[in-house]
Amino acid sequence: SRLPVRESVVTPRSHCPGCGHTIRWYDNIPLLSFVLLRAHCRDCRQPIPWRYPAIELFMAVWFARVALHLKYFLDGAHFIDFGQPASIPAGVVAALTTAVLGLFLLPLLVIDWQHHLLPDALTLTGIATGLFLVCTRAIFLGPTDEQLLLHRRVNLNSAGAGRSQGNVFLTGPEHLIFGRLLAIAAAAFLLLAIRWIYQALRHREGMGLGDVKLLAMITSFLGLAPAILALFAGVLAASLFAIVLLIRGRAGAETRLPFGSFLAAGGLLSALFSTPILHWYKSLL
């Protein structure tokens, strides 16, 4: 509610958008206060928008789903990210990563739907947060997580270096961090290329830079393959929505769609279900 109008999210305290009265602490309890107040402000009786309890309920369900996933992991299925074995601390960090991703994607989904805006305060901060969590997870990778990446001989012929026939390899932490950085760059370049091609063909902007940053943010949390799945789901959902609008006569060729909202929804889907979906897709190849 505050970021799109450039207000501080720290001060002032929560207040009614109608009368401006500060909301009492006991009127600010998620979901419960909405029910007790019968969906109206205590002071001015103006209706409380349904998006507030809807978002609160969604976040409760989101955290419950992540907690359930973590329970399955701790019960013995010590595998994350496409079946790779992981230590328990690394699995806990992975679950935390999914939980935090929801805290970024849901506000972006709602803001873009209402304002056609994806604030840098969320997208860029999200990219930094995702990378921080990846580095944190890399600390807890066990010795079984080390991976041999390059199986080829390398000759060192520089002066004084002699000649080496050893293998070049990166350990699990290096693979995770450098691979994620490369994935972020690849995802951002993909949407930038689409944006440039569209501008060259249509001579107008068809996709904002906010969408590029949003996909980069999803990649920083999940990796490249789940991010591409999120992009596919977002494009599919946006296309279906556009077709419905066209059939009902409520949109035309120049109508702007909040693509960021669909991309964020795709990111939420991918965060929970990318592993089984991508395993199923690979089985078809």
Radius of gyration: 23 Å
- Helix-strand pattern: HHEEHHEEHHHH
Total beta strands: 4
* Strand proportion: 5-15%
Q: How far is it from the N-terminal to the C-terminal residue, by CA?
A: 45 Å
Q: Would you kindly provide a brief summary of this structure?
A:
Strand 1 (79-80) and strand 2 (84-85) form a beta hairpin. The protein is built from 8 helices and 4 strands; from the N terminus they run ααββααββαααα.
What report would you give on this structure?
It is built from 8 helices and 4 strands. With 285 residues, the chain is mainly alpha-helical. Strands 1-2 form a two-stranded antiparallel sheet. Helix 4 packs parallel to helix 6 (209-222) and helix 6 (209-222) packs across helix 8 (259-284). The longest helix is centred in the middle third of the chain and has 31 residues, at 172-202. The chain is globular and about 60 Å long. The two termini are 45 Å apart.
Features:
mainly alpha; two-stranded antiparallel ribbon; globular
Topology:
Elements: H1 32-36, H2 51-74, E1 79-80, E2 84-85, H3 88-115, H4 120-139, E3 147-153, E4 167-170, H5 172-202, H6 209-222, H7 224-247, H8 259-284
Antiparallel strand pairs: 1-2, 3-4
Helix pairs in contact: 2-3, 3-4, 3-8, 4-5, 4-6, 5-6, 6-7, 6-8, 7-8
